[in-house]
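REVIEWER CHECKLIST
Item 1: Sequence provided? yes
Item 2: Single chain? yes
Item 3: Sequence as submitted:
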Amino acid sequence: MQRVKKGALRAVLVSATFLWSLHSYGQVLTGTEAGALDGDTIELNGEPIRLFGIDAPELGQTCLNGKKRWRCGLEAAFTLHRQLVDEPIECTIQGNRNEVREASCTNARGDVAEVMITKGFAQTLDSSFPSYSAAERAARSARLGIWRGEFVPPRDWRAGKRLPHLDDAPVQVCDIKGSIAAGGRRIYVVPTDKHYDTVEIDTDKGERMFCSDDEARLAGWQRDGRTSKRQ
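Item 4: Structure as written out by the authors:
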């Protein structure tokens, strides 16, 4: 058997990834219901999809309103979830971000990402549409959502930056549950899942908690296929 050099194999993998991304661009995905994994990631037909052009606080992230700490990441997730409940959705693939497909999504309530910006629960990215930047300026001026006080930009938070410690609450909360299902399948559930409260974690079995859905995926845990439908 002929050996393939590591450099050549890497080139093949990169090329395959590029061709897959090129093929996916512009693809339209539809569904009758979707769920929120966090403030800028939805689950559609069992697949995680990032909302194009925005970055929202991570689930475990906290922000400050004056001197009071609040769960801005969790509130962003539930804000997004409420935009999705009982609404058919259409998403157009724009590319990939951190190995997750990225799409612009709309439903009867409008552009889902723009709604999150308008409510003050997401920042725009450099690649976003001009209307997103205008919506962000309006939300910032009105001091809505994360703009009501201090916060660490989500990108910096993921890199390890944190707000100063206060006594009223922890600087981050890890409440994504990594559970081992039948057959040894490692699955994770997020607070917006309807069955979240029924899942109990047993660390002696190797189950654990995560601070973001990205962290859970990178650790090799997967979704169990049940879309979040908590009201």
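Item 5: Key structural point noted by reviewer: The two ends are 57 Å apart (CA to CA).
Item 6: Recommendation: ____
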